[in-house]
Amino acid sequence: MLTNFLIADHRDCDALFATAENAASDGDHATASTAFAGFEAAMARHLSIEENVLFPEFEARSGMAGGPTAVMRMEHEQMRAMMLQMRRALDGRELDDFLGLGETLHILIQQHNMKEEQMLYPMCENALADSAQALLERMRAY
Ligand SMILES: [Fe+2]
Question: Could you report the per-residue pLDDT of 112-140, keeping only the tens digit for each?
Fold first, then answer.
């Protein structure tokens, strides 16, 4: 249940990212800018949901505070830093730089999402089974 919601959110973020990248490779700065702004907002929300709702709950219930969630938090910071660089490139109309950074971020996100979807989310499902419904509502309302 938690996994389905979070995976769908990953896919929504991916779709916005793909739209921004496609527009940038077409040289369409305006569309790239709008789509990337949507991606930035969707990612900010997704990362915050994990860091402020899901991870703390998992850490408290599993007693694993220095484990997988610590790694995920670190990777979130790497993604935020990459997104900031991409924003600067986009605002400076450096579409080639934007696309180059985008390739790196794309790989980073794919690897990160795979770890979450295949390992961490199932661990959360197990640890938080009895509070999944309430957690899901908190995540939806975030
Ligand atoms: Fe994450």
Answer: 999 999 999 999 999 999 999 999 999 99
CA 73 to centroid of ligand 1, rounded, Å: 7
C-beta of residue 112 within 8 angstroms of C-beta of residue 75: yes
State the CATH number of the domain containing residue 87: 1.20.120.520
Q: pTM here?
A: 0.95
Q: Which amino acid does the sequence have at 134?
A: A
Residue 88 tokens read as 């600067």
Cα 111 to ligand 1 centre (Å): 10
- Tokens representing 108 are 């980073």
Q: pLDDT digits over 60-78, tens only?
A: 999 988 899 999 999 999 9
Q: How far is the CA of 129 from the centre of ligand 1 (A)?
A: 20
List CB contacts of 9: < 8 A, sequence separation 6 or more: 42, 46, 49
Domain count, the chain: 1
